[in-house]
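To assess whether the prediction recovers the assembly geometry, we first specified each molecular entity separately, as shown.
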Amino acid sequence: MVTTSEARVEAQFEELTDKKPIGAEVREFMRKQPLGTFGAAIVFVMVFAAIFADIIAPHDPVNNSYEHILQPYSAEYLLGTDQFGRDILSRIIYGARTALFVGFTAATIGAITGLVLGVASAYFGGRFDLIFQRIMDIFMAFPLIIMALAVVAIFGTGIQNVIIAITIPFIPRCARVVRSSALAIREIPYIDAARANGFSNSRIILRHMVPNVMAPFLIMITAFVGQAILLEASLSYLGLGVQEPTPAWGLMLQGGAEEYAESAPWVAIWPGVAVSLAVFGFNLFGDAVRDTLDPKLRSQ
Amino acid sequence: MSTARSKPAAKRKASAARKSSGTRKTASKRGTASKRRQTPARPTKPKFTETLVNVQGLTMHFPVTEGALVPRVVAHVKAVDGITFDIMKGETLGLVGESGCGKTTTGRCILQLEQATGGDIIYDGQNLNELNKQQMRPLRQRIQVIFQDPYSSLNPRMKIGEIITEPMKVHNTEPDEAARRKRALELLEVCGLNPKFADRYPHEMSGGQRQRVGIARALSVKPEFIICDEAVSALDVSIQAQVINLLEDLRDEFNLTYLFIAHDLSVVRHLCHRVAVMYLGKMVELADCDELFDHPLHPYTQALLNAVPIPDPTVESKRKHQIIKGEIPSPINPPSGCVFHPRCPIAVEDCKKSVPEFRQIRPGHWVACSEI
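The predicted structure of the complete assembly is given in tokenized form:
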């Protein structure tokens, strides 16, 4: 008798704790977050373009062709050509690669550094926290672009330096958000339990605190990728980012925007559209992910 | 469900261990408090001769600060204010008192989760307050803790198995991964849980089951002293009884010493050998369990015991209630002299001035009151 009822309870338990299949999760996400799905689609197209750029791009993005300078839309050059005769569509497709590489690298490094620093700051507390947070305040006082400009001015241009320049201003922003979550977690008894057991500080921070601040962290990362793409475009546009002839959206705007705005508007319009769509897509997707991860918003 | 099923298994295991090691009889194991008083099997204090923990004049004053950038101390919360007691090896000392009286802080000081502002905690000859982090680490293995809230004392991102094996890994009591896993499964069984739970997360379990996981974690590194910080207060009554019985079985099986912090007096009476009563950071009375419950001397203890309702409406309605008047004073600015004097029914003028000495009135019965 005991065993049968037990088995029944066990079965119910399994049912309750059983995870929904991934397909159902995706369908539910699409139903509840139509805008987020739209954002996810943009992100997906971008990632696809970046990975398979070699296959889908119709032309070589760096190949100058002086017979085809500033050509309007045609069957061969779907989005026209720029002032060096390079295919704009191909450059946009390869540009996605640059944008995503810089965006993901900078956002991930910045957010992870910020995560560890923020949690450590909250965990140690006291004077360390006070001083550390004031340093973060100093970094936060500069607008993102000014901070990035300063870093590039010090380290010079080039793709690594652009990544560094974008990463550094992200660190305090992530550290601040993560710290506030970590402060609450520090007071929860399982951290006391870990301390009472004599676990090392690094173990407590990495094994017990970091996994519990993942939700705000993931939201930060998705928001950061969009911002990083925008920053990279801005820096490249100002001539401080990625250098010619590497295909990059900001660089394409720099080359074409002023001189050919009237005679060949496609030179500036399409890279601009690409940047806007990419940032828009990441922001929509990030918002949707936040709503899905946050149980308080989930029920609505 | 599974707790109810695995309970006898744990009992069997525990009693088997007792039989094999030939320890004391278990006749009164499940007796009620009143029945147990008559049974001679009830362990009495003289059985315990070796002091394990000696707390001398422990004080914990938390600073109250003002000012955002340059904090300055404006006052102190005297959470624990000079308490002295000792815990014998193998005994269970109950620590009772109303909320905010400093009983949890006392436990946290012994665990070195708070750096005490004064006094000594001598654990097996070593003064914990003077040890640094490295010197403290081997002792942390011997002193474990069970927390009040089973919902927040387990890391929600770790599986039960990981939670239990982690202390073994850090203290290197079981260097081998497979051995740790095996021991974790055994501990789950000992604590009355299905070993299958090792691969589950805490949120998939009920409060009572989680508390058993907390107990298994505490036991994993083979401690000798466990601080139970309101370990059963957050559980409902039937689960409470199970967990208390489990704690009792484990005490006998592994020869554990408990500091049992609680506010539920019937639980304390059931489980403890001696009981200490705290009020506003001070210790007011300390005696053998039966002595304290049958002959409470301090007016605060009397009122505390009197406040426990008797489960009989006719008796309860006729009984004269002795309710302590007023609110518990602020520990930032405690009353002068005896801290209990503003609420004490037998206070005299002198109580406002002189701090009563914590003195031994009968053998083993200590009271801090000058009017007795």
